[in-house]
Write a structure and sequence with these properties.
The chain has about 375 residues and is α+β, with helices and mostly antiparallel strands. The chain has four domains: about 100 residues; about 45 residues; about 120 residues, Immunoglobulin-like, CATH 2.60.40; about 90 residues, Nuclear Transport Factor 2, Chain: A, CATH 3.10.450. About 40% of the residues lie in helices and about 30% in strands. Helix 1 packs antiparallel against helix 2. The radius of gyration is 26 Å and the shape is elongated. About 0% of the residues have low confidence.
Length: about 375
């Protein structure tokens, strides 16, 4: 038993410190006010009568302030900035957009930090014997602060999460999945995509889709661990592999998107927590897909595929695009495996592949093993 952070009553609390009633109330109120703003955005128009426009404007302010109350109380699972939803209404009414209170508060906090930093600098200046010592100290301190803010530990702390491991099994809702990949892809907009496979192969596509639509919640973050506003995409299932997509709204630079956080995942030891994966960029994502396809193909040619050992580093493979064949590549690598006599031998190989990455389909055109 613990005291609920919201109502103050002694009760069973979740990892965020809320009792079940308060947790459901908070999530329900956030969703209700978001839906109000979305409905107002659909109704809004610059051609409405002034009285009706004023009603929509007042309702927008009310819903926005309700959402900001949750932001000010630092509700952990409320990552979005409600000003984006409110400004969708303001644009439709042809009114000036609102400034982000979340951004203002962040700037105020930054100003306080800067003020403290200035005081510290003054003290250091008074105690220092030379300008050179101050310069070296300033570089060292600033460098350490910058390193800390960019470290994965800071990202995990910011998002109340643990570091996830690809290839491991985690549960979403009541279904277990092997987490295969976490990638970022430019499809005209920047997407964070998590690919995973249900361990229970008897599940139907509808069952998997329903489970992920209900429980598969994720969001992208930048290098400093700050959540990026976005929209959950469609859950897709193709040949036993699912993908959960998240579109990073208003982000045009793929380099800004660094990690993806999958919420409320149950690990093998039964703990429920958020997990963080570093996102591969498009180039490395495509290289991984080509290497995996090549390795699976080479195994079919081995006497003892279960003993196969491929290079551990992605950069140990050489991939050459074939200019005269669209979407086609040579994948060069090697494999150590037992021969007919049980002796481990190394063989070089080249696999010629045609790969349609957007459809996750490939065709093996040729295989050569030395």
């Amino acid at each position: 038993m613990a005291k609920c952070k919201w109502c103050g009553e002694n009760s069973s609390t979740n990892k965020n410190g809320y009792c079940e009633n308060c947790n459901d109330m908070i999530r329900g109120e956030i969703l209700r006010n978001k839906e109000i703003l979305e409905e107002l955005a659909q109704k809004a128009s610059p051609f409405l009568p002034d009285e009706e426009k004023d009603h929509i404007y007042q309702d927008t302010l009310t819903a926005y302030q309700n959402l900001m109350d949750f932001k000010r109380k630092q509700v952990p699972f409320f990552k979005s900035d409600p000003v984006e939803w409110a400004n969708a209404v303001m644009k439709k009414l042809n009114l000036p957009e609102m400034e982000s209170d979340v951004k203002k508060e962040a700037e105020n906090k930054e100003a306080v930090v800067n003020a403290k930093s200035r005081k510290i600098s003054i003290i250091i200046t008074l105690l220092s014997f030379s300008f050179a010592i101050l310069l070296v100290l300033g570089i060292y301190v600033n460098g350490r602060i910058d390193d800390y803010h960019h470290s994965i530990s800071y990202v995990l702390k910011q998002n109340d999460a643990a570091l996830g491991e690809l290839g491991q099994t985690y549960s979403i809702g009541d279904t277990s999945y092997i987490f295969n990949e976490a990638v970022k892809i430019d499809r005209g907009a920047i997407w964070a995509v998590v690919n995973l496979s249900p361990t229970d192969k008897t599940l139907s596509a509808d069952q998997v889709t329903d489970n992920l639509n209900q429980y598969g919640k994720l969001y992208a973050v930048d290098a400093k661990g700050s959540a990026l506003a976005g929209t959950a995409g469609q859950i897709e299932l193709y040949e036993g592999v699912c993908s959960i997509d998240y579109c990073c709204n208003n982000i045009s630079d793929i380099n800004l998107v660094k990690y993806v956080v999958v919420e409320d995942v149950t690990t093998l030891n039964g703990e429920k927590q958020n997990i963080v994966f570093e996102l591969l960029d498009k180039e490395r994502y495509e290289k991984v897909r080509l290497v995996v396809a090549a390795e699976e193909t080479i195994k079919e040619y081995l006497k003892s595929p279960s003993t196969a050992e491929f290079p551990k580093l992605l950069d140990d493979y050489e991939i050459v695009e074939i200019p005269e064949l669209e979407n086609s590549y040579y994948v060069y690598g090697y494999v150590d495996a037992e021969n007919s006599f049980g002796t481990m031998v190394r063989s070089d190989f080249c696999v010629k592949i045609n790969y349609l990455f957007d459809q996750e389909k490939y065709k093996i055109l040729d295989v050569q093993i030395d």
